[in-house]
Amino acid sequence: MDLKDLYRDVILDHNRHPRNFGRLSEENRVAEGHNPLCGDRLTVSLRLDGERIADIRFEGKGCAISTASASLMTEAVKGKPRAEVQTLFQQVHALLTGGAAADAALGKLAALSGVREFPARVKCASLCWHTLNAALERGAAATVSTE
Amino acid sequence: MSARPQPASAVRPYDVERVRRDFPILATRVNGHPLTYLDSAASSQRPRQVLRAIEDYETHSHANVHRGVHTLSQAATGAFEGARERARRFINAASVREVIFVRGTTEGINLVAQSYARPRYRTGDEILISALEHHANIVPWQLVCEQTRCTLKVAPINTRGELDYEAFRRLLSPRTRLVAVAHISNALGTILPVAELIRDAHAQGAVVLIDGAQAAPHTRVDVQALGADFYTFSAHKMYGPTGIGVLYAREALLESMPPWQGGGDMIRTVSFERTTYNELPYRFEAGTPNISGAIGLAAAMDYLESLSLEAVAAHEARLLELATAQVGALPDIELIGTAAHKAAVLSFTMRGVHAHDLGTILDAEGVAVRTGHHCAMPVMTFFNVPATARASFGCYNTEEDVARLVAALQRARGLFG
Questions:
Q1: With contacts defined as CB-CB under 8 Å, which chain A residues touch B380?
Q2: Distance (Å, rounded) from C-alpha B304 to C-alpha B301?
Q3: Measured between CA atoms, how close is A48 to chain B, in angstroms?
Q4: What is the pLDDT of residues A21-38, one digit of tens each?
Q5: Cα–Cα distance measured from residue A81 to residue B102, given in angstroms and rounded to the nearest whole number
Q6: pLDDT under 50 in chain B at which residues?
Q7: Model confidence over B120-171: pLDDT tens digits?
Q8: What is the DSSP letter of A103?
Q9: Nearest residue in A to B358, CA atom
Q10: Chain A partners of B381 at a C-beta cutoff of 8 Å?
Q11: Taking each helix axis from N to C terminus, what angle separates B291-307 and B48-60, rounded to the nearest 10 degrees?
Q12: Domain coordinates in residue numbering, chain A
């Protein structure tokens, strides 16, 4: 178990300087994610243009893994069609739970592969993805809980 | 025999290394490091004496209690009732009729909420708690308020995490039917002036329940001296097993309370027309109890008293003082809960590092602390933090443990820059 494998430079950087942080003013989809176990909360807001995520932001308070994962996620899905985001979600889930090795298609998201060695932290990394999923599936004002 | 004669007043120094040898789990290595166990406030470890008492019982004496004439049933009943008498002495209850075995503190509070409070209270009645309670001393009263339409009042705390005593007194009134407060806060370590609170509550005609989960391992509890109406605690926070605890209740109150759960052991006679109930304390113990748990709890009480509760408390106070100074001196650390009177708990945050990241980094160094809201979300809200890291001390902790905690926190600071 190597801490540097969990807290890679990419993770620490995105934790310190989260990308796409805040709330979209012209959102048409929003969901709130909550991990009651640790108290992490985040809101994902996005503007869906047809089937494509035209813009996305997140805000909230969380640990480094949850903040960095959300930041990396917004970068990865911005501009992508829903179907592609769904595939990415499945790939990330497999990566976090140890079902698959890091795929080249994951790009920077592969930095999350260290999480699988820390089972207690998997939910921290997946919260943002479940929240994005809820926003896409259920539309406005959805709430998702990891418990 | 000591080689040198000592004056009778000399206090033998607390031999923590000898204590540690009683706890086999402390030899565990975690992630390549010796275990530094600083999570006793969540659950303490068990000494060999407790493990052996349970094994002896299970090996030689187990049968159901209060049911059979055969030899093992009598042995089990004797051991179980012996444990009740042990618990009575530990808290100085007047009678074993006032000592009810429960699953733990949570069940003790729920029993009082449902059997004592619920049938009595109505609109206009008030239950008064404090702002530093564990969820187990909040939610059962919220349930009663929903069921009876009585009102929950909350006495505030100050920024040091101490009860605002004047505000507490202002909230007390003839409408206050019950006061429920922690003896020691689990999230912050604050020791509450429970004897004074009980006196004030009684002056207004209210009964008082004390949540003693954190107090039982750290301070001598004398329910008669305190004047508590209800006092409840768990074995697993005082070196005993999980799934067992004690609810102390004054006999006169218990006599006035209807049974809480129905089943075997709590009845005298049963027919389809009419059932009569058993005497105290069995009326509140439906079903086969946690027999080995009670025996383990009694062994834990023997163990704690063999170390001397006062000596353990003094040892823990030294460690808390050391840890407060050393952790508090680290850069970017904020101590959460700085009450003048505290026991065995150091709660803190590190700027720029979430408590869960701290927990993972400390664990990689073999240091076990609790991270999160400590089942006290209102306390976290008050201090405007999502979570804290909490180091808590027990009879087996050492200055070396404090040093390892400090080193691991420095590692976290280095990693996060």
A1: 39
A2: 5
A3: 31
A4: 999 998 999 999 988 777
A5: 56
A6: 1-3, 6, 8-10
A7: 999 999 999 999 999 999 999 999 999 999 999 999 999 999 999 999 999 9
A8: P
A9: A63
A10: none
A11: 150
A12: 3-144
Dmax (CA) of chain A: 44
Question: What would the two tokens of residue A6 be?
Answer: 């969990």
What is the Cα–Cα distance from B37 to B46, expressed in whole angstroms? 12
Q: Do B377 and A39 touch (CB under 8 A)?
A: yes
Q: Which residue has the tokens 């979570």?
A: B387
Architecture of domain A3-144: Alpha-Beta Complex (3.90)
Range B51-306: architecture per CATH: 3-Layer(aba) Sandwich (3.40)
Q: Is residue A40 within 8 angstroms of chain B, CB to CB? A: yes
Q: In what order do the strands lie in the sheet with A29-35?
A: A52-61, A40-49, A29-35, A142-145
Q: Do B416 and A40 touch (CB under 8 A)?
A: no
CA-nearest of B107, B281, B295 to B211 is: B107
Measured between CB atoms, does A10 come within 8 Å of chain B?
A: no
> Token match 């049974």: residue?
B259
In single-letter form, the type of residue at position B311 comes to A
- The reply to whether CATH 3.90.1150.10 applies to domain B16-42+308-416 is yes
Of residues B353, B372, B416, nearest to A39 (C-beta) = B372
**Among A37, A64, A124, whose Cβ lies nearest the Cβ of B372?**
A37
Would you call B375 a catalytic residue per the annotation?
yes
Cβ of A7 and B377 within 8 Å?
no
Residue A16 at interface with chain B, using a CB cutoff of 8 Å: yes
The percent of residues above 70 in pLDDT, for chain B, comes to 97
Give the per-residue pLDDT at B2.
44
- Interface residues on B facing A, Cβ-Cβ cutoff 8 A: 31, 352-357, 360-361, 364, 371-373, 377, 380, 386-387, 415-417
User: Domain boundaries in chain B?
Assistant: 16-42+308-416, 51-306
Least CA distance to B412: which residue of chain A?
A3
Distance between CA atoms of residues A104 and A98, nearest Å: 16
**φ, ψ of residue B205 in degrees (nearest 5):** 85, 10
